[in-house]
Amino acid sequence: MADTTEKTPVPRRKGMTRRQKRSLSRGIQYAVFVAAVVAFGVTADWGRLRNQFAQAEIAERMFPEVITLALKNTVLYTVTGFGVGLALGMLIALMRLSSVGPYRWLAGVYIEIFRGLPALLIFIFIGVAVPLAFPGTEIIGGTYGKVALALGLVAAAYMAETIRAGIQAVPKGQMEAARSLGFSPGRAMVSIIIPQAFRIILPPLTNELVLLFKDSSLVLFLGVTLEERELSKYGRDLASQTANSTPILVAGLCYLLITVPLGFVVRRMEAKAQEAVR
C-alpha cells in the first residue's frame, strides 16, 4: 500500500550564512582600506613631503657615517644591554623560583618596580642620581657602560618573567629523571632544565632584543659626545643643522635594517615551535 502521508517541507533559512557574512565583512574592510589609501594618495601634498623628507643630497652626505658611527653605536648599545639584561634576568628568575622567601620577595619587588617605571626614568636615574649618590664613582665603560646598565635593568625585569615561565614549562619529569641519574639540583637546572627552557623562550627573547634596539634612542638623556651618538641622536642633530627631516627618515630606515630581519627571525622561530608542539 502506497504511503500517502504528506511530508512537511523543510523551511529554508532566510538571510546570509556565517561564511557569507564573514566574506562580506572582509570585503568591506578591504574596501575601506583601499579607499583610505586612495584618499591619502590623492589629498597628500607629495611635493612638500619630498622636499622635507626625501632630499637626496642630504641623504648622501650622511653616508658612510650613519652606518659606521650611528648604526654601529646603536647595535653596540643594544647588544651590551641585552647581555646585561639576560644575565640579570636569569638571576632574578631563579630567585623567583627559589624556596627561600626573601629571595622571592626581592625578585618580585624588582620586577614590579622596573616593569612599572618608564625606561626614560631609568636612564635619567643612571645618568643623574647615581653620580650624585656616589660622588667620584665611574661606571665601567663610560657612556657605553651606562647605556648597557640602563637597558639591562629595564630588560631584566621582562626577561626574568619570560625565563621563569620557560623553566616552569619544562616537564617536571625532566628534573626527576636528572635527579635519578645522580645530578644535583643545581647541575640538573644548568645542564637539563635551562637549555630546554631557552628553546621555548627564544622567540620572546628575540622580541625583547627588538624592543631594546628601539629603546637605545634614550641614550641622548645621558649626554653623549659626537662619537657616541646613536641613530636617533645622529638623525636629530643633522635635521637641526640642515633644517630638513631627511636625516630622520634615513635614521628610521636604518632601524628597519635591523628590526625587520629580526622580526622575520622571530616569526620563523615561532612557526617552528608550533610545528614541534604538533
TrEMBL record:
Residue span(s) of domain ABC transmembrane type-1: 71-266
Primary localization: membrane
Per the record, membrane topology reads:
Multi-pass membrane protein
Query: What's one Pfam family the UniProt record gives for this protein?
Result: BPD_transp_1
Q: Which domain of life does this protein belong to? A: Bacteria
Spans annotated as Disordered: 1-21
Organism listed in the record: Streptomyces althioticus subsp. attaecolombicae
Which spans are transmembrane here? 27-44, 75-97, 109-133, 139-160, 181-202, 248-266
Q: What name does UniProt use for this protein?
A: Amino acid ABC transporter permease
Q: Spans of biased composition, class Basic residues?
A: 10-21
The record's comment on protein family reads: Belongs to the binding-protein-dependent transport system permease family. HisMQ subfamily.
Where is this gene product found? Cell membrane
Kindly state which keywords UniProt assigns to this record, in alphabetical order: Amino-acid transport, Cell membrane, Membrane, Transmembrane, Transmembrane helix, Transport
Alphabetical list of InterPro entries matching this protein: AA_ABC_transptr_permease_3TM (IPR010065), ArtM/GltK/GlnP/TcyL/YhdX-like (IPR043429), MetI-like (IPR000515), MetI-like_sf (IPR035906)
